[in-house]
Amino acid sequence: MFRRREPVPFAFLAEADRFRSNVTPPPRERASLGELAGRWLLGLTLVAALVGALVLGMPALSTPSSTPAQQSQASQGHTQGH
Length: 82
Prior knowledge:
The protein is an all-alpha fold. Helix content is 51%, strand content 0%. It has three helices and no strands. The chain has helices spanning 11-14, 33-61, 73-81. It starts with 10 loop residues before the first helix and ends with a helix.
């Protein structure tokens, strides 16, 4: 049931998994209003960038329609001039 551990040359390494600290860490400091505003602004900027990239990239991801390709305005303007 219990597996035997390999011998470890240092005793403190062998007992490290059984060690429990009785020292409680200090309480976390609350973020200031400026820090919270900065985090929100950064998050909104990242979300807006992702949405913008998706909106700009959607035409490239869409499949071409079955209608015949139309000439561009530049080529139409060139043919009308002659």
